[in-house]
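#help-structures
NK: newbie question, is this the right format to request a structure? protein is D-alanine--D-alanine ligase
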Amino acid sequence: MAEKEALNVVVLAGGISHERDVSLRTGRRVADGLNALGHAVTVRDPDASLLAFLEESAPDVVWPALHGASGEDGALRGLLEITGVPFVGSRADASRLAWSKPTAKTIVSRAGVATPDSVTLPQETFRELGASSVLATVLDGLGLPLVVKPAQGGSAQGVTIVTTADELPRAMVDAYTYGDVALIERKVDGVEVSVAVVDVGDGPQALPAVEIEPVDGVYSFDARYNAGETRFYVPARLDELVSTAVEDAARTAHEALGLRHLSRIDLIVDDAGTPWFLEANVLPGLTETSIMPQAITASGREPADVYAALAVAAIADA
């Protein structure tokens, strides 16, 4: 199908996760971009009538813009695969791998990309072995500073940077608020970057890395989605050799996890120029303050054109 042919697209946005508002903003940006190119777009919140609606309306392609578990854990994508409707983004199996940060770290590490030392603690283990002894062991083994985060999820919700032992218990409580499993990771000091990877049918291409510099030092939920809370540098202020290493690491992570069409790979670049893999996102945010649209623009393309090309690629891959 030619990219300029008008498509009937269903954009899925909203959902019931903690990231509902962000999803609605992402969905609106995708819909507005596709509409501007002449495509017919329907924005749908997933609900009990969704599957019947898709069967009846038979869209050319579905564009999932659902952040959080409802769109990124693979469940909905598995159902879309069963229906046979083409959809943008990674398939269910790859989404499940990327959704679990500990699993993604293991896979990407085996592919040769560095990732910080860490321990994964289900809440049951934390309680069974006793909080004080577990945290003491963690501090002895990993040291400080640490990053504590839910093992699943995005948008930095439930993430805490721990610089003193006294901060660790509260950080665990915050992480368990968003899930039953917490990931405790040694904090790597360096330049925080995100690399958007796009594949519209000619293989995964790493877009220019975006350097992230939060005004208050922490790339929190508010810093991600409120204008003025973060300074972005596109491309990242890295020398050529380091930039190449960062792009290679992002492509390697994307391919090792079996991701499709688009992803965002988050990394830290240390003082030696080594990129450290943190996590992979199967649905990067596409809001007005998100990283991927900035990277697309820096690559010389318009975001709407890329969103349309991804829709066409999804149809070709169905």
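mod (FA): yep, format's fine, and the tokens are attached above. The CA atoms of residues 269 and 275 lie 4 Å apart.
NK: thank you!
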